Amino acid sequence: MKKAAEYLKENKNILIVGVLILILILAVALINAGGGDGNAASSDSLKSQEEIKLTRILSELEGVGDAEVMITSDDDGVKGVVIVCEGAENIMVRSSILNVVSTALNIDKNNIAIYAMN
Q1: Cβ within 8 Å of residue 67, ≥6 positions away
Q2: DSSP codes, 38-56
Q3: Residue in 89, 49, 98 with CA at minimum distance from that of residue 65
Q4: Is the pTM here over 0.70, yes or no?
Q5: Three-point CA angle 77, 52, 115, nearest 5°
Q6: Are residues 44 and 52 in contact, defined by beta-carbon separation less than 8 angstroms?
Q7: pLDDT single digits (tens) 23-77
Q8: How far apart are CA 109 and CA 95, in angstroms?
Q9: How far apart, in whole angstroms, are the C-alpha atoms of residue 58 and residue 67?
Q10: Are 63 and 90 in contact (CB under 8 A)?
Q11: What φ, ψ does residue 64 adopt, rounded to 5°?
Q12: How far apart are CA 68 and CA 100, in angstroms?
């Protein structure tokens, strides 16, 4: 027992460095345990499920074409929606989009903005 105490006392710095290395290895292992590449977030992972669903629905509407959707919300619910799509120049397509989004999200049509895609 006395020898172990003397060993610890004499090699204190080596033990501290060893413990710090173990902590660093554990931290790296925990960070990487999430799987995938932590630095490369896909655009779908940044979108909410509502945005993804609404984008799919709108893209299926006749004349809409490709669409991008951004939904702004707070604790009380959806505040507004911005839609950028290929068919936004057509007044009938815009009307359909307004109806679908207003119904799907239960918001006023005045809180929906639709713009043409380049």
Answers
A1: 55, 58, 59, 83, 84, 85, 86, 117
A2: TT---HHHHS-HHHHHHHH
A3: 89
A4: no
A5: 80
A6: yes
A7: 878 778 788 776 555 444 444 556 789 999 999 999 999 999 999 999 999 889 9
A8: 10
A9: 7
A10: yes
A11: -75, -45
A12: 15
Specify the 3-state DSSP secondary structure of 11: coil
52-69 in b/e form (b: 16+ CB < 10 A) is eebbebbeebeebeebbb
2 compared with 57, residue with greater pLDDT = 57
Q: Copy the structure tokens of residue 38.
A: 């932590």
Q: Distance between CA atoms of 63 and 102, rounded to whole angstroms?
A: 18
Q: Quick one: residue 35, left, alpha or beta (phi over 0 = left, psi -120 to 50 = alpha)?
A: left
Distance CA 43, CA 77 (A): 23
The one-letter amino acid at 68: E
Q: Which of 87-96's residues contact partners 24+ apart within 8 Å by CB, and which partners?
A: 87/63, 88/114, 88/115, 88/116, 88/117, 89/116, 90/63, 92/63, 93/61, 93/62, 93/63, 93/64, 96/61, 96/62, 96/63, 96/64
